[in-house]
């Protein structure tokens, strides 16, 4: 998506260790007009899919997911990083490893919000090693719901997340895929 | 706001200990059409205020804030619950007590996203004891920015948060204010 790539080139900052900071428009300060253009593009790419719900994970996926949901006219459910695991059987639960924070989270969704009748689009801001999306896929499968696809704003194409999801036979649409970055020059190369 | 009160009456669940569960439309599953009506109402109430940015806090405030922001044509910044405190001076930092999770969080906003030129509307889903909003006010004041007001979806009128904010001379607009709840009968009384 040209508009997003331009914005990443303009406002993204490449840091050592293959870190891309996009906190001025994507995941700390959020440009809702840009999110709306992303919503239109996801709607175009997933046109005809019987999506009735969007699933994301707290925190930075929520804003994009809500704006995108307007284009599909469906509700959003966000998976929560659990403070304490509820063992009363009312939650689907999985574990997600965060490389950024070097810990493993228990992540939950209330069972009443995922059912075998649901056709789910997963939305998230970033895809790198794929752990978060993999956890959401696990939650959806626990519920017996259908995964219509995964929509990502920025995919780090040089990490394994994209391949993991595509190898499961799940449709993945990333609006910008970064092929390589150089923290010395600031250059960012996108997959065409 | 009649539409929100009706929805709380229909789908809210009163639990012992003055707990109101609105997770089917507000803070776990999210009804973005309802959020849009809330956005229109906040825009009506804060019409004429020179708001140029919306500030909220992760996680459940983010969805509402993003949808509301579309009606003001401004970006959203969300304060983050810090995993580790960054002491490099690039963050405004405050502490927020969570009664729900019985802990104190360090909460941060990057300094580059709050400045003395900013006129901020705070948006959050719930107001009870006021700790979260009070922390956001503290962050805004650290930056020397102007607080135009606070917009809340559901205020528990019988807890002290509303008074704390109003007593600071800050304009508070809550779309539904609960005067009392009864977990035996399920009855919810709204402030008129």
TrEMBL record, chains A, B:
Pathway: Purine metabolism; XMP biosynthesis via salvage pathway; XMP from xanthine: step 1/1. 5-phospho-alpha-D-ribose 1-diphosphate binds at residues 128-132. The keyword Membrane does not apply. GO terms for biological process: purine ribonucleoside salvage; xanthine metabolic process; XMP salvage. Keywords: Cytoplasm, Glycosyltransferase, Purine salvage, Transferase. It holds the Pfam family Pribosyltran. GO terms for molecular function: xanthine phosphoribosyltransferase activity. Residues 53-146 form the Phosphoribosyltransferase domain. This is Xanthine phosphoribosyltransferase. It comes from Candidatus Merdiplasma excrementigallinarum.
